[in-house]
Amino acid sequence: MQLPNLNAARLRTNAAVDYVYLNSENNSPFTNQKYFLKTYGCQMNVHDSEEIAAHLSSLGYTKTEDLKEADIVILNTCAIRENAHDKVFGFLGRCKHLKKEKPNLIIGLCGCMAQEENVVSEIRAHHPYVDLVFGTHNIHELPQLILEKQKEQAINVYSYEGKVFENIPYNRDSQIKAWVNIQYGCDKFCTYCIVPYTRGKQRSRKSQDILKEVEDLKDAGYQEVTLLGQNVNAYGKDLEGEMSFADLLEAVSKTGIPRIRFVTSHPWDFTDAMIETIAKYPNIMPYIHLPLQSGSSRILKLMGRRYTKEEYLHLYQTIKEKVPNVAITTDIIVGFPNETAEDFEETLDVVNTCQFDGAYTFIYSPREGTPAAKMLDAIDLPTKEERLQRLNTLINHYSKIANTKYVGKTVKVLVEGPSEKGKDKLFGYTETMKLVNFPGSQDLIGEIIDVEITAAKSFSLDGEVVKDAITNH
Ligand code: 5AD
Ligand code: SF4
Predict the structure, then answer these.
(1) Across-strand partners of 456?
(2) Helix (H, G, I), strand (E, B) or coil at 225
């Protein structure tokens, strides 16, 4: 179909992408219309939503937090576990209801679930009120999809798209800290995980493009960047002659941006050079998310994780020794097919040894198309739930201990905004990614300041600003 004549301006033509932008405030049919964007899942999706928001505002839409006000609803979905799927279809039900009152409402679904063939078939067969479906590889086509939308459903999902796009527009949620993609997709194919199927194989961005983006963010006043990828420390392995992740970290550090973080690291790709770089540069934050998944070497093998319990522990201890005051968090799955009581005890053993600062814990969820989904599993759900509960109790115990160690200490906090914990309170994060709530003036937002920790909770710290100690670095 022809695009309507809307002064569509092709602003970007690099990397064979044409972003369709409407270059006038007045002649877009979407001016005065509102978008409601709901994001499920990981930081990658959160960042993708910043791109979706940019496309929607380029068409003239403004954001609303109120579903009832929306003229277009976009659900950016996650496929990592079955419950994410259930939540999305639950929310779609609400949208369907709303559409009865508001027949022109556009409903769009994107993200990892849109990359699943069975989901697309389900939408086609049973959810005709969904107007648009697009995938993780063609977010840039959203403006076109909206403009071309006719009465019938528009489904446009690539099964695999190898391109890496540059100069992607983002409506960033924060003016203080920013996500920076360094790599897309994943080549690890852990047997339980759907990500390599929904996001495709690993594609790294060129280091010069990443560095340029970080420089620009620094010039725009950003205090923190988080380098983002499913497997950041495999960075560059898919590009001939590209630098390693350790070298990239060093180069990003040298831009002088005050704070650098990165997620997620795979233990198998963690090198000594990385550890040295993290220890050497003060603007690389001493905080590492290092997914364990299981403490049993037998289960790790079945998961295809490429390390044993002992290798993980060795890496963990090395990081702890070499990086002063480092905080380490993890991901753990319980109830992988045929995880025995002994396997689970091995996981508890690692948790007792490592005493993680925190952990995200999950019950294994079979994902169609992954090798683990075909494995027979004799362990019942109540057993898995009981294990999860035991694990969480232990994890919370160590989080509290880790937090308690901060009481009486003065730490640097990047102040992000007003706290939910009360009027005149602010919140921010320590270098080690601990959430701190403290009383203070709004002028401090965006600054890195010294805060003395006065109390520790399980999931946050309370503090007091150390007067005259705004560091401004
Ligand atoms: N079931 C449960 N948890 C999973 N994760 C990934 N796939 C699954 C699955 N099929 C968890 C892993 C990963 C985190 C992002 O989600 O722990 O690190
Ligand atoms: Fe999934 Fe494993 Fe890749 Fe992480 S490393 S995204 S768990 S396949």
Answers:
(1) 461
(2) strand
What contacts 297, CB < 8 A, 6 or more positions away?
308, 309, 310, 346
Q: Give the pocket of ligand 2 (CB within 6 Å).
A: 186, 188-190, 193, 195-196, 230-231, 266
Q: Do you find a cis peptide bond into 264, omega within 30 degrees of 0?
A: yes
Picking from 141, 143, 113, 115, the residue whose alpha carbon sits closest to that of residue 39 is 113
Q: How far is CA 409 from CA 71, 449, 450, in A?
A: 50, 13, 10
Enumerate residue ranges in the chain where pLDDT < 50.
Answer: 1-18, 23-24, 471-473
pLDDT score at 161 = 67
Are 290 and 330 within 8 A, CB to CB?
yes
Closest ligand 2 atom to 187 CA: 3
Ordered structural domains, the chain, with CATH:
6-156 (3.40.50.12160), 174-279 (3.30.750.210), 286-404 (3.30.750.200), 410-471 (2.40.50.140)
Q: pLDDT at position 1, please?
A: 31
Mutate to test the pocket of ligand 1, among 83, 266, 333 (most ligand atoms within 8 A of CB): 333
Q: What is the total residue count of the chain?
A: 473
Residues 6+ apart with CB under 8 A from 5: none
Residue 458 has a pLDDT of: 82
pLDDT of residue 19: 52
H or E segment at 405? none
Provide the β-strand partners of residue 156.
134
Q: What 3-state class would DSSP assign to 210? A: helix
